[in-house]
Amino acid sequence: MDRIIEKKKWTVTKILKIAAITVFSFFIIYLLFFRDKTSRLFVNKDQISIVFVKAGKFQEFIPVDGVIFPLTTIYIDAVMGGTVEEIYVEDGVMLDQGDSIMKLVNANMELNYMDQETRMYDAINNLQNSRIALEQNKFLRQKEIVNLLYQIDQAEKDFERKKILYRDSIITVKEFEDVSRDYEFTVRQMNISIQLQRLDSVSAEEQKKQINASITRMRNNLKLLRRNMEKLLVRAPAKGQLSSFNSEIGQTKGAGERLGQIDMQGGFKLRADIDERYVSRAHIGQEAEFDFSGKTFHLYINKIYTEVRRGSFQVDLLFSDEPPKGIRRGQTLQLRLMFSSVTDAVIVKRGGFFQQTGGKWIYMVDPGGGFAVKRDIRIGRQNTKYYEVLDGLKQGDQVIVSSYDAFGDKDKLIFK
Question: Model pTM?
Answer without folding.
Answer: 0.53
